[in-house]
Write the structure tokens for this entry.
Amino acid sequence: MVKVILEKGLALRQAGNHVAAEKVFRQVLEREPEQPDALHMLGLTLHAQGRFAEAAPAIDKAIALLPDQAMFHTHAGVVAAALGTIGPAVEHYKMAIKCDPNYTDAYNNFGVLLDAIGQYDEALQILDQGLSRNPKAATLYANRGKVLVRLGHIVDSQLSYEKALEINPSLAEVHNNLGNLLKRRGHYAQAIESFKRALELRPDFIEASYNKALALAAAGSIDEADQTLEVLISTRPEPRFLIARAGLMPVIPKSVADIAVWRQRFEEGFGLLIEKRVSLPGDPLEVPVMNFHLAYHGENDRRIMENQATFWQQACPSLCFTAAHCQKPSETGSSRRRVGLFSRYLRSHAVGFTVEGLLAGLSTDEFEFVLITISGDEDDVWNTLASQTHKVLSLPYDLIIARQKIELAQLDILIYADIGMDPLSYFMAYARLAPVQCVLWGHPVTSGLPQMDYYLSNDSAEPDDAANHYTETLIRLGGMPTCYRRPFIDERKCRSNYGISEDGNLYLCPQSLFKIHPEMDAALAKILQGDPTGQLVIFHGNAKIWTEKLLQRWMPLFGEAICRVVVLERVSWQEFLNIMSLADVMLDTWPFGGGNTNYQGFSAGLPIVTFPGKFLRGRAAMALYQHMKIDDCVAGSPKEYVEIAIRLGRDADFRTSVSEKILERCPIIFDDQRVVKDLAKFLRSVPLSN
């Protein structure tokens, strides 16, 4: 009879009717007060209702009756964790594993708990122990994937998710998690497919629908992303959905007018969110950085960036954390100032290449350097940078824990190599983690944040009115924009190696596709029309749809010349240098120009045609030309830009003379010590107060 009643209660519990199930289990206990299964099930039912304090003694009593039941100990651990009593939860999970080393749920729940409290290495160890016992446990692989993301082991995490789905393809949440990982890696098309699969399995899966919208936006399918978010908002107007929709911005805009429309929508959208005092109670990392593409529009973004800062400080006040040592700033016990440099791009990336010489030139006797990045982003360039510093910090992709790790370093000065390119660094920058906080030109636009004290820039690249472009105090360092190590090509190849015709002049525009502003389109078309055998070479975007949208935008202007646009796959750094050496002319983008590529091009003697803009981000090539005392390739208008490019392409003697001047004079722009000395002077003298 008791067995029949228990089965009835279990069926009610599995159906989600926990109130009715509770009555059934209590009915059993009235007959048999020490029935262990009824006590255990009652505890689970109370837990499901959020009545954790009542659930714990019920399961504890079941354990007292049957102390060797791994399931009882596991569920006691779940309840203890829900009560916030971590120590007892850990002991219950350990006992469950001792009772039955093959009980998968014990490893799963123990791993989830350790992950939740930030003990990622220990969580991974427990989950791996479980897999050694049961290599077919899909949930263990799924949770292992989550922990590996935290640890920054992105490739291994993807393999774990894929293994979980190989074992059990019906796990919608794992498809969603895999999609998030692929999105973070820039594999947008694959991410979108993962989210679609999750939604096929669970059509009401709100998280997957939201994440799909974010992936669509990142991939450039802005209209579809907008429609998806609109539907979500009509169903459930969560703050993150409202924020994400307000912050939509096309990667490849259709036209200059299209940019104006989206910028206006952006400003009005966040203005309305500020007016309505929308708050975000969850993790801000669930919402991507919204302001990245604004910098490529050629406008003064100071006001819009300040408004973003106003919104986030209002919506998520916990961002404005202050480290304990900053509340009463004082000199450290060491005679050296402790300086942190933070970016997730301190690797084989433009940011990593452009800070390498700066770090190498600064005195380790005078400063104690702490190099900070996100776990999983380390590579050979990171290792080189790390060898030049006293200490390194690899942060988990967790805002609170990452912030705590930086706080423990007790920095005097914290330099962000870039702000606005990555969500973690952007939201981290709202905190006061050092008495003095600065931002470099990795993403050359003001942060808009009151927590950023100084913007470290280059005097020769900034216009006279540059101070008006920044909320930070502008520091105009002398010398070159950075201390850049001169690159050299290991092995020279020919055009045919890359599928490029040997005939005709090669005009290389190697920048990210979102740097090619619609205002440039007519100039690029005229260059090809003015050189009937010329080829315009670009590289695919992170998402192929970026390339498709750009070529669609070009077709009406380019006409038949569109067939002379060569699109190359993205390549390694050395291959990139090889391709650059094969070009006849490099076309700098405007109003947002190149940075890293200028040094690479000049090292090869490549003439770079540039049309300087109104802001730092469009004036780097001009600044280097000024230092080399060369003005042949600096245009004063789009018309002159076209004329210079065509002359360089078609007049071999002119091109050779410019190239020879560049090769003769370019040594001055490499390994510049003036900028290092000015930076050291600033770090040495800036008052440690905020």
